[in-house]
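Hi there, hope your week has been kind to you so far. Thanks so much in advance, here it is.
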Amino acid sequence: MGYHTGEQIRAARAMLAWEQTELATRANVSVKTIKRLEATSGPIDARSEWSVVHALELAGIDFIGSHDRWDRSEGVRFAKDRNAKLRRKLIDDTQFALDYELKEITDKDQDFFERPTADIVAFVLEQLGPALTSKIQNMLNRSD
C-alpha cells in the first residue's frame, strides 16, 4: 500500500469519465472512501487502495512512474493492452492452482499420469473449474 496517490486516482477516474459513484460501485467501496482517497495528497495508505486501483486497471488505466515517495514522476495513462494484467494474473493463478492440485493427486497416486489423457483432463477441469470461477469472479468483482 501507499504506492499510488490521490492525484492518480482522481486523474484516472477523470480519464474514464466516471463519477465517484461509478468508481465506488466498481471497486466495491463507499463514495466517501473515494472522496477521501482522492483528497489525499501524496501516497495513499488505505486498505481500500487495492480495490480502487484494481477497478481502474480493469477499466484500462495504467499507473506509471517510480511510485517512490520522494520522486514525483508518477502518473496515469490508458493501457496499451488493457487486459494484459488481468490475463497475466489469471495465468499465474491458474498455474499455481494446477501445480498444487497435481502435486496433491500425484502424492496420493504415483501412477496418475498413466491414466488415459481424457481422465486426466476431466480431473483437472473438475478440480479447477469451481476454483477458477470463484477467482475470476473475485478478480472482476462480479458474482454472476
